[in-house]
């Protein structure tokens, strides 16, 4: 599952960042991209994820289709700087709630850490994804970030054998 999130890239939104998509490198963790809150492409991706969650993600999760795997939800966590968006993997739906495991070590001080199990707050949903065999469904924010990747970064991402629709 961790491989999924490394491919997907963690997203952090901070009001004070000056470059449109500044990068932060961390040892043993995926690269972090800083995105301004007024980034139209990212905001459209988040809205699309919210609109399609109940009609696309939820039915796939509960379908028990053997071709579907690696269900993950990206959630925004409030920080003093604005917000940090973190992937939650190993998603299960139980008693009307989505639960999963934090897939990235937060950059900012938060009440969560890598490996914690949490209940997802759908009010703060920022993306979702799952694999249909090797086709990645959802991943709207990942697709926006992919547009800014170098050819080498795209080639590395594509080496995982996944297809982003």
Can you characterise this structure?
With 165 residues, the chain is an alpha+beta fold. It has one domain (2-149). Helix content is 28%, strand content 40%. The chain is built from four helices and ten strands. It has helices spanning 2-8, 40-63, 140-146, 151-158, and strands spanning 10-14, 21-26, 29-35, 68-79, 82-94, 97-102, 117-119, 125-132, 135-138, 163-164. Strands 1, 2, 3, 4, 5, 6, 7, 8, 9 and 10 form a ten-stranded mixed sheet that branches. β4 (68-79) and β5 (82-94) form a beta hairpin. α2 packs across α3 (140-146). The two termini are 20 Å apart. The relative contact order is 0.20. Residues 1-19 have low confidence and may be disordered.
Number of helices, counting only DSSP H or I runs of 4 residues or more: 4
State the share of residues found in helices, binned by percent. 25-40%
Could you report the average pLDDT, rounded to the nearest whole number? 84
Provide the low-confidence segments as ranges: 1-19
Tell the overall outline: globular
The SSE order reads: HEEEHEEEEEEHHE
Strand content is 35-45%
Overall number of structural domains: 1
| Extended strand count | 10
Distance between the termini: 20 Å
Cα-based radius of gyration, to the nearest Å: 15 Å
The main pleated sheet reads as: 10 strands, mixed
Structural class: alpha+beta
